[in-house]
Structure formats: structure tokens, C-alpha cells
Task: structure prediction
Amino acid sequence: MRKLNKFLAAGMLLTFIAHAVMGSMKLLGSDADSLKMAARVLFMLVAAHIIVTTALMVQTLYACKKTKAGYFWNNKIFWARRISGFAVLIPLVMHAAIFSGTTETGAFRLVEFTAGRLISQIMLVVFIAFHVLTNIEPMMISFGVRSTKAFSHDAMFVISVVLLLAAAAFAVYYLRWTAGVR
Result:
């Protein structure tokens, strides 16, 4: 299951980058026709990742209980990775609900993009940043990358730029919405 999970994580990361860039362009007024396809693929990968990761976590908890040696405080980063993954789910569900708007003559329209929705989307960016950036190095190791530092730093830089673009696009879209420019 761990091998499957590493491929799911890599696929999610690549699809997420494509979705975030295309979605940002869409929010900034550009056209991104393949956005729905990327979103659907990403949704399926995320769902599979949640199932596999939950199963692996249940196995871990069972082993901890069986051996009575959980070492929770010694494995803080392990648990931070798991908890942050579940924390992403709340703003992720909100993201899906917010952006399942309608299209009118090819233009994407939301019912209303309020300050609360903007905050939920900024939270999504922050939670994804923490979850992805803390899991980059373990993913590199699982693929057998020997010099994880250099590659991890490059990946972190690219992901940070994409997340900054997404956060900026949410903010610009909110400002355009409040100014009445839709």
C-alpha cells in the first residue's frame, strides 16, 4: 500500500500544480478549459490517497496499541504530517463547494465570494503548504532520490510559487468581486 501511496502522492502533486495554475489563471480572467478535468482527476487521486493513508494510519495505531509503545512525542513530525492532511480536508470541501459554480457563456461565476470564503481559501493554501512541504522529503526518499536536499529545495520553491500565485488569485478575485467587476 505504501508503494501505491507514493505514486498517488506524486500524481496529486503534479495534478495539483496544474489545477492551481489553471485555476489561478481562471480567477484572474484568463481562460483555462481543462480546469474541470484536472479538478476531477485531482479529486479522484485525493480520495484514493485519503483511503490508503487512513488504512496505513489505522495499521500504525493498531501496532502502537498492540506493543504499548506508541512513542507519540518522539514521532511529532510523523503525526504532524497525518494531522495536517486531515486538516486540509475542511477547507478542501469548502473549496469544492465554493467553486462548483455555474458557467454562463463560458465565463465562470460564483453565487457570492465573501470575505469568509476568501479566508477559507487562504486557509486551504496555508494548510496545503504545510502538508506538502513537510512531506516532500519523505516522498523523495520513497522514490529513491539520493540527494533529497537539493531536489526538495527546488520542489519547495516551485510549490511555494504556485501557492503564492493561488493565494494572490483568490485575493484579486475577491477584490474584483467586491468592486463589482465580475
Q: What stands out?
A: Helices lie at 2-27, 35-67, 76-98, 115-142, 148-178.
